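Q: Fold this one first, please.
A: Sequence and structure below.
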Amino acid sequence: MTQIRPMTLHDYDAVIALMKQTPGVSVRDADSRDAVGRYLERNPGLSFVACADEADGIVGTQAAHRAIVGCIMSGHDGRRGYLQHLVVHPDHRRRGLGGALATHCIDALAALGIHKCHVDVLKNNASGADFWTRQGWSLRTDIDRYSHIRGGNANA
């Protein structure tokens, strides 16, 4: 049985390990423990993890008898919501878990009065693009995103 609950900083190691083993997900310096801690503190109750019993086929990655098999982070700028790092372990895909994680974020953002969300998908992440399209999200073609990296660190 899989349970979805709010993400805490105690989940960091398991979440990062899951992200690092997932094709199409980029882990950068901005995903450090300190940075994630600041993100979770700034956006309380808006990021979630999915935990499964060891009997569900994943050996526990935490001291408890539940393993993190999915995660999603979200936040907002006061007007728009931003979903990031939706990851579901391959053994738990195609069961509605990714959609359920996204819905938790969207519902939590809506409770704050935020009704429009964005998600960025790397161009080389075809499975991510397919997932969001199946969920009813629309690819924006009217804007381009530009980034500035202070100090020039390409992995910022």
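Q: Good. Now the second chain.
A: Here it is, same layout.
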Amino acid sequence: MLRTPKDKQTAFEFVSLESLVPQDHMLRKIDQYIDFSFILEKVRPLYCEDNGRPAIDPLVLFKMVFLGYFYGIRSERRLEQEIQTNVAYRWFLGLGLTDRVPDHSTISWNRRKRFKDTTIFQDIFDEIVLQAIQHRMVGGRVLISDSTHLKANANKHKYTREEVLQNTKSYIEELNEAVDQERKERGKKKLKPKEVVEEKKEIKRSTTDPESGYMVRDGKPEGFFYLDHRTVDLKYNVITDVYVTPGNVHDSLPYLDRLERQTQRFAFKVEAVTLDAGYLTTPICKKLKEKKIFAVIAHRRFHPTQGLFAKWKFHYDAQSDTYTCPNSQPLTYRTTDRHGYRHYASNPEVCKSCPMLAECTRSKNHRKVITRHVWEESKEWVRGNRLSPDGKKLYKKRKETIERSFADAKELHGLRYCRLRGLKNVTEQALMTAAVQNMKKIAMHLSKRE
């Protein structure tokens, strides 16, 4: 017999909100295993104790924010609507079926006013990492880092051209000392102090979001982007660091500072790191070797001048400090320039009659010059690590750790696009996305373990 329900929507039922949420619901696990009590202590100085209207419970406010990131709800207005009709969301917030949901404008007001110029979002992220450490889900021994691009909330056709100062290299003083010491040991005159000239470059500045950066990379979309620099721990793929920069900042620039922050904030004893090819710079290799950290960095492909021998065909002998060309002729040391490169040159009288001259150099004086950085040994050490059995195993972990972390953030939590404009707002989005990813990982792991 065919029957249709009638007037079910207007029927009164005596039910408990607790019974309407499935026992295996993710939010139940989050509520059970994640301790949110620290939020009240973090925000207490931002509220007045004895004046003004009663505020919305900060715990409810931040749980609303977490819900938006848990389920990739990009609009705060939409988030309010979803909470009104979803009993699991109401249960998570501690609201009854008839309780009024806080207005969406409350979240945006607190972001623009109360939480402006504070470290509350960084503090929340750090506290979740500390909870993961307490549950022994973070080893702090092997860290994997990379960056991904986030499309800025800006039109790539609306921009102005500006000249800005180049980023000052943090290692320049150390390099100058190394060059002076190198020239002194080799009997060369000390270079005259170079006048500090602030180099400028022309960039595209978005008129919609001026703090974003115009990114142009091979194999990447072109336009205004931000970069999310992220580090994960190998043990359970818990995210341990998040740092956002404009899209035109090179991956390697913030890396050493962020690594140092993790070792200080979480007392990590890092033994190994795995990085992409963008981090294969001499200063990074040198620092990691000094810290005795086993570094595995992907190979960066260099394209030599077409028709000429590649640099790897010239073999370096450390004992004699010379290079040998494919025709078995030596290239001896000449000088060290102020940029930290040693120059090795061939004998033009020998090269003049060499049958391989056309494939070796096109210089008019028939002299072949090879350069080698004063810190090149550290880069060769990293190359050896990459080719070792342990290095190959570590590098294969990237696809199931850091790359998986970025994929989940973009597909499940809405990190593919920037919700708001400005570096601070994008940093908030990246931190909160990483925080909820860690919350899910902690809750799922502990629930399985029990």
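Q: Anything worth noting on the second one?
A: The chain has three domains: 17-118, 139-188+198-301+379-424, 311-374.
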